[in-house]
Design brief:
Blueprint lengths: L27 E2 L10 E2 L12 H8 L13 H24 L11 H4 L11 E5 L5 H8 L3 E6 L2 H10 L7 E5 L2 H12 L7 E7 L8 H11 E12 L3 H14 L16 H10 L2 E12 L4 E6 L13 E8 L2
Parallel strand pairs: 3-4, 3-6, 4-5, 6-7
Antiparallel strand pairs: 1-2, 7-10, 8-9, 8-10
Length: 324
Amino acid sequence: MFKRFGNRVAAASSPRVGQGHRIGRSRWTHSSSNGIAGLEATSTKETQASSVSAAEVEKFVRLSNEWWDPVGPFKYLHTMNGPRIRFVREILADLARLAPQGDRFNKPESKQHSRRGRAWIEGLAAVDVGCGGGLAAEALARLGMRVLGIDAARENIDMARAHAPRDLDNLRYAQTTAEELVAEQRQKHGAAADSLFDAVVSLEVIEHVADPVPFCRSLVELAKPGGVVVVSTMNRTPLSFVVDVVLPEYLLGSVPRGTHDHSRFVPPDELRQIFRSLGAELLDTQGLILDPFSNTCHLAPADFGLLRNVGVQANYISAFRKNK
């Protein structure tokens, strides 16, 4: 996967990541410093400055009971979930395969089994930011990762918890935002890297936030040095306007009208520049080729020969590595 970005996998030390916003107070219970175990929200939220858009959150609150309906308003997220999780797994597998001795991604089983089995991925801590009803969080937990799913909407977290299988004791949920979690980690652990996450995942969320830059800053701050941040979203192109807005919302009626605002979509180059300015380098970008008529989705390279970015004209997914 790292054919184009292999020289960026072991990024050198970086400029200091910008400081996040200091936001409201929340109380958590920690039974360890691994960033997830024993982490549960125990308070209500006060009004705070964050990248959360209340209007965007409300859209999903109204649909919170339908997260797990595979033919409901979130059916395309169900369709995309397999390719999205496959991308995350392959990124982590390549890091395990290429990791130098002493790197936390380097485990005895990594070199021979980086693409099969699950022993190499077990124990890695991940946070799913804007987890909704838990589609991606559950899938990541089934890979063997210790997963915390967070969302600003209580209704989404309630649905995610209700659906979570009892056998997934490595899956936790909390109603909070990325900024709040950064502030809480900082308050309890300071700059201790062990309190952060090996993988930070935020899928189809950034196009719904008030400002992508502080949101991305929080994602980077949640990652350990050398950790991975994975973001999926939509490019801001004529094709994405047709595929992600006109067809599903106005012609097929499979997604409620007004769900997406094309002006909020983020082009891949813009996303790369944001993360680079925050101290994270691009590992890979691939297209998520979604066919709304057949309800299928597959990963595709961003570039086809000399045709640059042709594979990411609509939906895409990118991985970044926080500089050590």
